[in-house]
């Protein structure tokens, strides 16, 4: 089975505001999440343009997944892709939501078979309530490892992106449910990754070198 990878940035259930006027909003966020916990443990929280993805641990390796709209207070349970029947085979789910284009959202699930020799991709669409399965796969090495810095991708420009240790970008087009090529500035393989994400409509990568004198390269 594929080895777990630590995400570049992990969001947890507790929120801390640095502005006093936001404290009530942060408290309300925790209260709303608590309303659907029902004894479950929040393992991971992600957000995309105001919509939240919640990953719950139930014990015995089982998990449940929900999409939560903090504005409306409505949420939806996300079932497993019909290609698998065990939640531990899910490596992560990536939320894709662009309110300027549609009220619907997509969930890109990264999963593997028990053999763990390939990373597979499936897409859930809120408009149809069904999973689409990509014919694409991402290979692993002999130890069941992939060269990605994390399974949690970044949604930008209609696709989810991952950064690999070889300095390449893996770009998965949600509409076509397939990989697509993407030109990028050459990035040194020895560059350490400090941040990879979207901001202001652009995809950003901040890297640092291994010298004692700290320097940052921003792409």
TrEMBL record:
Occurrences of domain KIB1-4 beta-propeller (ranges): 44-217
Name of this chain's protein: KIB1-4 beta-propeller domain-containing protein
Classification via PANTHER family: F-BOX DOMAIN-CONTAINING PROTEIN (PTHR35546:SF117), F-BOX PROTEIN INTERACTION DOMAIN PROTEIN-RELATED (PTHR35546)
Species assigned in the record: Anisodus tanguticus
Database matches in Pfam families: Beta-prop_KIB1-4 (PF03478)
InterPro entries, per database record: At3g26010-like, KIB1-4_b-propeller
